[in-house]
Structures are given as C-alpha cells and as structure tokens.
TrEMBL record:
Residues 49-135 form the Cytochrome c domain. The keyword Iron applies. The keyword Flavoprotein does not apply. One of its GO terms (molecular function) is heme binding. Gene3D superfamilies: Cytochrome c-like domain (1.10.760.10). This is Cytochrome c. Pfam families: Cytochrome_CBB3 (PF13442).
C-alpha cells in the first residue's frame, strides 16, 4: 500500500468515526413521522367543537407541560430535560394534522404517549384542532 492509498483509507476511517459520533445528536433534533401518518386526513377538520372537547383534553393532559397558551411554559416544563416546542410558532403550525396526531398519540421520551389515555379517535382529532388554534 503506498502512502497515498494509506492517507485515503485513514480519511475514510476517520469520517466513519465522526459520523457515528455525530448521528445520535443530530437525530434527537428532528422527529420523523411515518408517511402514513404524515399524509393522514383529519376527518374532523373544520368541525365545530361546541362542547370544547379539545380544549378540555388540553387543559387536563397537556397544559402542565405545554402551558395554557402553548408556549411551552407549563409548571412541569422546568423539570424536563427536553426543550418543549412552542405551539404558537410557524415551525410548529406548518406541520400536517397527521404529524401532530402522531406526535400527540405516540409521544417519545419525555413527551408522554396518549394511546391509552385518549382512546376515542374523534377526541384525538378535536385535540389536534385545538392546538391548531394556539397559533398566536
Ligand atoms: C410531561 C410533559 C408533557 C406533557 C404532559 C405533554 N407533552 Fe407534548 N411534549 C413534551 C416534550 C418534552 C416535547 C418535545 C419532545 C421531543 O422533541 O422529543 C413534546 C412535544 C410535543 C409535540 C411535538 C411538537 C413538535 O413540533 O415536534 C406535540 C404535538 C405535543 N407534544 C402535543 C402534546 C399534547 C396534545 C399533549 C396532551 C395530550 C402533550 N403534548 C402533553 C412534553 C409534554
């Protein structure tokens, strides 16, 4: 093996090491939602929630962390390691209803799963509709 080949091999090995090291940090940032959910149609889009089901569920289950207005400043927020996304931000609101549904129901790490606590599909979508209204 001549010097040039050796240098190329060493650069290759070093790059692999770096990638393995950086990956766990970068993936914890973005939260990929499976395409099936991402494209899911909200069957209750635009439906009037006269009984305020969405808001009630939000106050009971979500407000403690996400805050009354969705700013991520609930009473429990300070004891968490993970930064809480701001529901009023454009970055949050530009996600599809399906993405919000998926993240709400399945959660990850410090974001709890609501698969068992909120079972009714209509309730789940009304909750998504409610967090959509926190856009200001
Ligand atoms: C114990 C605190 C806690 C509670 C309670 C909680 N969340 Fe979360 N939530 C989080 C944290 C922390 C994150 C960020 C998670 C991450 O990025 O890994 C999050 C993220 C989210 C996201 C994804 C935001 C984004 O842009 O990626 C949605 C949607 C969400 N929560 C909705 C809800 C809803 C709806 C409820 C109530 C049913 C709820 N959460 C209850 C802590 C909480």
């Amino acid at each position: 093996m001549n010097t040039r080949t050796l240098v190329i091999v060493l650069i290759g090995v070093a790059t692999l090491f770096l990638m393995a090291f950086i990956k766990p940090f970068s993936t914890s940032e973005s939260w990929e939602v499976p395409a099936k959910y991402k494209k899911m149609k909200n069957p209750y889009a635009g439906v009037e929630d006269s009984e305020r089901v969405g808001q009630t569920l939000y106050v009971v289950h979500c407000k403690s962390c996400h805050g009354k207005t969705g700013m991520g400043d609930g009473t429990k927020s300070k004891s968490l390691k993970t930064a809480i996304p701001n529901f009023t931000s454009e970055e949050f609101q530009c996600q599809t209803d399906g993405e919000l549904y998926y993240k709400t129901i399945f959660g990850r790490d410090e974001m709890p799963s609501y698969e068992k606590k909120i079972k009714d599909d209509e309730d789940r979508w009304l909750l998504v509709n409610y967090i959509r209204t926190l856009n200001k």
